[in-house]
Amino acid sequence: MCHTNTKPASPAHEPAVVQLNQLREQGVPLLPVKIPRHYRQLVEEEIATLGRTGGPLHSVVYPKADRFHTFAPGEVTNFVEDFGHMPDGLDRVIVHRYPAKLLFFPTDTCVGHCQYCFRPDITGTDPAAKNRHRNLTDPVLDDVVRYLEQNPGVREVIFSGGDPLACKPAALDNALSRILSVPSVKWCRFHSKAPLFAPALLNERMIDVLARHRVKLVIHAVHPYELGAEVGERLAEARRRGVLLYNQFPLLRGINDHADVLLELAYRCVDLGVQMLTMFIADPIRYGATYRLRLQRVFDLADEVFLRGEGWVSNFRVCMDSPVGKVRREHVIAHDPAADQYTFERDCQQVTYHDIPAAMDRPTPVDELLYNGTRFVT
After folding, report:
1. What is the chain's Cα-based Rg?
2. Are 263 and 309 in contact (CB under 8 A)?
3. Which ranges constitute the DSSP H helices of the chain?
4. Through-space distance between the first and last CA atoms of the chain, rounded to whole angstroms
5. 370, 267 contact by CB (below 8 A)
6. Structure pTM?
7. How far apart are CA 329 and CA 78, in angstroms?
8. pLDDT, tens digit (0-9, with 9 covering 90-100), for 16-49
């Protein structure tokens, strides 16, 4: 039911990849290295330019060298507690955390693997599993439709989890038709890294499905160099057909932790007709500390982008997903500098966030992140 154009990765020479595979063999929920051909070429060009590995695109798909010996207080496996919001009988099918929308996993397969993934315990955890695309079969869709009919407050269904564009257009067409047949469901949204990992998957058949069902497509571009010519052509065709495009991404140390990178990313998105939607604070998950920034630096970067960028570029939200829902700077009700903890409150519910140690947050020089220069930022 699903397909990819991924070549097997061959990074065994990298110690971090060896350690990744060893931890996976021990049962630790981590994603293996999986790089589609298109993105592999971008990484190879980056290595040739920098003369080394460890650049921003390399850090997207290969584990960073210090990942498995860098830890921070308060880390957990799944910060937002997805499994606590999966209805009975629909485990690993939907997550219903907000009254008006729910998350639907069409598959647990992704086109490529982001090593900073915040949901490695949900996505692609068992490569040998069979029927991993069963959520697009009619028996499972029957259960999903029944749940939606019993919960008429749900207005939007978000296809995510695994990557929806890893699935065949016909299967997605059927799922969209069935879900949108529920009168209370007004919109469907796709969250996908596929247009950046393997832009050929955003082909005419896929765009036709998205356009006919008025699907909003949210890409996950974390760096401006992901938005090359081929990606731009595919996105432009989708936009021409009336597909609304958005970008949602995390702020990540060593990948995009500089205002110039964020502005260049925003300008390139807008130039392609992609509206900047959300910049996420990285989840405090196990083996993710090397990607995180100090919370104050997140806020400072957001402020700099706001002050330097035009309103049509910088007017995106900055928030953190949490067990009590999405929270922003305005939801901070307490800060304990001695414990290095923040308390967020939303809807009378509180969540504690443990910051990373100050010594761990070393800003990345901009010339290492924008090694090819810029097109819009001066």
Report:
1. 20
2. yes
3. 15-25, 37-50, 56-61, 138-150, 169-180, 194-197, 204-212, 229-240, 259-271, 295-308, 311-314, 366-369
4. 46
5. no
6. 0.94
7. 22
8. 999 999 999 999 999 999 999 999 999 999 999 9
